[in-house]
Structure formats: C-alpha cells, structure tokens
C-alpha cells in the first residue's frame, strides 16, 4: 500500500498557554489539490510549519510520502516544496544566485537547465541577474515559487500564495497539480479553494472542524445552494 | 531582439521523477553551498567587511606606534613589531565573530533563515558551514591587516605553523561564539550588547597592546582567565618565538575552549533553539 503524500497523526502544539494545534489528524492523498482554510490564528501556518520542520510538535507525527519529518527529515524535506506566506528574500544575491544556492542546499549541483526553465516559465528570465532588492513584490513572490520548485518536489505547499499576485501566476500555480503533484493550499480567498481544491479542511482554534470533499461541503447545509464561503461562515459559527 | 515573454505556467516533471538522491554526497553539496553563500555574502560587501577593519587596525598601529615606539620595548622587541601580530589576531577574532553573528541575526530578522531551515541540511552541516565561513572572513581580514601593517615593523616568522594553528582555532572559537550570539539574539541591540560587553573587552584586555607581565600581579592572574589572551600569546609566539606562557599551554586552553563552545553550539542547533519553535 502506498503512503499518502502527507500524513498528520495526533499533532499537538502549544506556545506557552496558547494551544496552536490540538490533536490534528489528516491524510492527503498523492495528487490531491487540498485546501486548508480557517480564520487568522486557526493554526494553518503552524501546521504547515510543523510539516516543513520549522515547528516541532509537542505530540503526534507528520510524514511526507511516508517519511517522518523529524526522524527522516532529509527525505521528507527533499520531497516537499514550500512557498512561504511572508515575502522574504536574501538581499545580497541576484535571482539566479538565489536559485543556484537553493539547489545546492538540496544537494543538487549543475541545475542550471532546470533553473532556466523555471525562470522562463515564471517570466523571470529578464530578471535573472537582478538583485533581489530591486524586484517588485509580485516578482519577489515569483522567486519564492521558483525557490520552492528548484528541487522538483512532488508535494508542494502554497501558504497564502496569491496575495498581490497577478492572474497569470495564479493560473500557473494551479496548473502545478496537473502533472500529479500534490498541492496543499492555505488561503483566505475561499472562492479560490472552491474552484481548485478537491478536498478541504476547515480549521478553528487549532482543530479541524470540517473535513470533506468540496462537493460534499457545498451540500452540507441541506438543498439550499451555497458557496464555499457561505459554508465556511456557517461552519465557523457552529 | 524581442524579449521572450512566456505566460507563467510552471510545468514540473511527474511525481517520482526527482533527481536521484545520494545522501552523503548531497550533504556535502549542502555544506559547500552554505559555506559558499556565507563567503559570497561578506565578499559582496567587502568594503564594509574587509577594507574597513583593515583601515581600523592600521589606525591603531599608527597611533600607538607613534606614541610608544620610542619608549616601550616588549619581550625585547620594538613596540610596533610586538603590536602587529596582536592587531592581526584581534582583527581575525572580531571579524570571525561578526560574520556568523551578523549573518544569522539578519536572516532571522528578515525571515530569510527559512531558506536554510527548509532544505535537508543537518544541524552539524549548518554549524560547520557558518563557522568555516567565519574563519574564512577572519583570515581574509587578518591577511589584509598583516599586509598593510607589516610595512611598519620588522616581522619574523619563526614558527609559521603556530601562526596558522592559532589563527584558525581562534577564528573558529569566535565564529562559533558568533553562531551562539546570532541564534540567541532576537534583535540587533542584543547582538550589539554581546559584542560590546563581552567580545570587545575580552579582545582588548588580552595582551594585544601589552604583555601581561607589565600588569600588576592581580591583573596578570585575571588575564589568565581570558581565553583570548592565550590565542594572541600563542599567535605572537609564531612570529617571534617569545610569549608570556608556553605555546603548548595556549594550545591546550584554546583547544579545550573550542571543544566546549562547539559542543554548546551543536547542542543548541540540535535542539533547534530559537530556530525551530
């Protein structure tokens, strides 16, 4: 039996007295486009950070393609690409240097063909030798996407990726799922999740309070036709 | 020529077609990449990270040698000759500390530290790359200071191996302390406090500008508790074959210090202290 792309089992995390994750259980299958929704402070970014090894859970375990993110972190991390929420960059380097360095961190040398392809596809070729500081916010966001893809991960986490992003890049991001890659999307744009995600988890106060296919969630409140945003509001208020 | 504009549409190879993974070789590439990145980082701002400390050391030499050259001899050496190795070593130590500490605090404050934390880089590789890059900057600055100040004194190189050993070990200790400070500090003024209230006094009160034999007995004894004193004394021995304590004693103290700070740093990195919540 093949492992799910992502397995989260009994994961809990406290920051002092605050419970950020309260026993999360979640399996995400290979090739799924999965949405993680919730208000600010629901625990979405903490969960993603735990998956990426940036946060160490107090209890439970997380796996990427069957590899434990703590005990087998090398394999887990090389299979995972994360586009962080914050627009972060290293101001010392050009776009190309940034991508070469990121490749090297993943143990990949001589990755220039793939880097050129990513630059071309993200319309960054003309900016390849520009310093990161000189890029616009949208261009920096593209470089973040490129950094997440530079080691060709099969599982990709997009943490609020579309804030300040143009339509073309957004459409490009959604196409990542077409080759069978697993996508986990956190977003505040519920209509985005409704149009893209096959399955959705809604989080509140560190817990998953709704987990189902998007189609089932839309039918959850009787026969009345609702948008996912309306379902989200009702779920949050129950 | 027309610029080529593609519609952004990233197409990845199908799942399972990642390049093959060779753990140890990939780990080494990760190490050299992080080391290269750290060296490139300070090299790109070389005016600030290399030229400025060389100029500072030069000013120290001009002022102190002008005032003291005709009045002071230390270990039967002209004062300027005595001073040059101390200034070189002080520059190595301060810049090794500055490199790792400033890089880490900057990455933490800007958030770009995630680019190093997300990949499969072990805590040992992380620590070793930052420390080795710190040593590299220390040595580059040290060579620069030596090249500039060496014109003003008749230097000898009686035991070059001691010079190299103390330069590398001293740089490694301060580079490792820089990693600790960079991890511990949450903001720049905390790092400045570490630098100004610990590193600066330790380096200035270590015999850079004087032999501890010229101090009152009490302060001589206090100086012996300062590990930087042994780094500088051993380093100076490599030039002139004279020192306040045996170079072997200095090597033992410096070696033990390195093992202790390296063990502490590795323990902090393994726990993910202030890096992985």
Note down, in words, how this protein is organized:
The complex is a heterodimer of chains A (238) and B (277). Chain A is α/β, with parallel strands linked by helices and 238 residues long. Chain A has 2 domains: 1-79 and 153-238, 3-Layer(aba) Sandwich (Rossmann fold); 83-152, no CATH class. Helices cover 33% and strands 26% of the residues of chain A. Chain A contains 9 helices and 10 strands. In chain A, the strands form 2 sheets. A 6-stranded mixed sheet of chain A has the order 6-7-8-3-9-10, sandwiched between helices. In chain A, a hairpin with a 2-residue loop joins strand 9 and strand 10. Chain A is globular and about 55 Å long. In chain A, 49% of the residues are buried. The mean pLDDT of chain A is 86. Chain B has 277 residues and is mainly α. Chain B has one domain. Chain B has helices spanning 23-44, 46-68, 79-110, 114-117, 123-149, 160-184, 188-204, 217-223, 227-240, 247-271; strands at residues 73-74, 77-78. In chain B, strands 1-2 form a two-stranded antiparallel sheet. In chain B, a hairpin with a 2-residue loop joins strand 1 (73-74) and strand 2 (77-78). Chain B starts with 22 loop residues before the first helix and ends in a 6-residue tail after the last helix.
